[in-house]
From TrEMBL:
<dbReference type="InterPro" id="IPR003140">
    <property type="entry name" value="PLipase/COase/thioEstase"/>
</dbReference>
<dbReference type="InterPro" id="IPR029058">
    <property type="entry name" value="AB_hydrolase_fold"/>
</dbReference>
<dbReference type="Pfam" id="PF02230">
    <property type="entry name" value="Abhydrolase_2"/>
</dbReference>
<protein>
    <recommendedName>
        <fullName>Acyl-protein thioesterase 1</fullName>
        <ecNumber>3.1.2.22</ecNumber>
    </recommendedName>
</protein>
<comment type="similarity">
    <text>Belongs to the AB hydrolase superfamily. AB hydrolase 2 family.</text>
</comment>
<keyword id="KW-0443">Lipid metabolism</keyword>
<dbReference type="GO" id="GO:0008474">
    <property type="term" value="F:palmitoyl-(protein) hydrolase activity"/>
</dbReference>
<keyword id="KW-0276">Fatty acid metabolism</keyword>
<keyword id="KW-0378">Hydrolase</keyword>
<feature type="domain" description="Phospholipase/carboxylesterase/thioesterase">
    <location>
        <begin position="62"/>
        <end position="276"/>
    </location>
</feature>
<keyword id="KW-0719">Serine esterase</keyword>
<dbReference type="GO" id="GO:0052689">
    <property type="term" value="F:carboxylic ester hydrolase activity"/>
</dbReference>
<dbReference type="GO" id="GO:0005737">
    <property type="term" value="C:cytoplasm"/>
</dbReference>
<comment type="function">
    <text>Hydrolyzes fatty acids from S-acylated cysteine residues in proteins with a strong preference for palmitoylated G-alpha proteins over other acyl substrates. Mediates the deacylation of G-alpha proteins such as GPA1 in vivo, but has weak or no activity toward palmitoylated Ras proteins. Has weak lysophospholipase activity in vitro; however such activity may not exist in vivo.</text>
</comment>
<dbReference type="GO" id="GO:0006631">
    <property type="term" value="P:fatty acid metabolic process"/>
</dbReference>
<dbReference type="InterPro" id="IPR050565">
    <property type="entry name" value="LYPA1-2/EST-like"/>
</dbReference>
Amino acid sequence: MACSRLPLNLIKPQAFSRSFTATFASPALLAKRPQLFRDPVGSRSLSTMADFNTRPPLVFPAPGKHTATVIFAHGLGDSGHGWASAVENWRRRQRLDEVKFVLPHAPDRPITCNGGYRMAGWFDIKRLDGSVDSLRASEDQEGTVASAAYFTQLMKKEVDAGIPASRIVLGGFSQGGAMALFTGLGGELPLAGVVGLSCWLPVVDKFLQGMPADKNKADTPVFLGHGNQDPVVRAELGLMSAEKLKELGFTVTRKIYPMGHSACVEELDDVEEFLHSRLPPTEK
């Protein structure tokens, strides 16, 4: 059965340099083109916390009483605006009225596989040729750790505002999904769940080093969605990541959809169901 595409919201290639032949962008109707400026040779690719804080996240307040928060990260070359319509989709049945949605924006950084041109990204990607191994070659550990610190900061801000970690879900698409897995499952906060779409588990060795020894993995279930025709983040890589998480003791639900590196209505409906099950309303 075909997977219904998002109405008026298909995944759209960004205006990358000619050397960049694939896109990590979210299904974006509002996403803007990245600026194509090459950094001087030898410049650092790691963004500071100040870089993150210059662009506050796009926030969708809870329509009702705020008792839960979902933080969802976009893919390479996109912005939080690219997933605004997905939030509207998740809310259309009014089952998540107590949930605030936070859509952060990645800072611009040089991306090696894009000829060193700057674009929005959570970490650098050295090589991208569509193979299973390319995304795991020379991984940007420094950039990944820096972005993880930023996502942890966002989650702790919610906790400080009175939302318990058990009412927070961290998710993302593609590179953003990779960050959700790395941060949400490798950190100390006992989250309600983690969502990863068309993604993989990055920097596995660092992930294992940073995971608390006493982490209760059963309390943070994982939803993974992937297209079986994905030419960018291969479904095989997603499967390898899912199996690794299961091996570590996490409860993983993985669903495959007949699509490429994209998202579809069926997948978003499954995400909504997962969010509703993990963040049920406290008031009837």
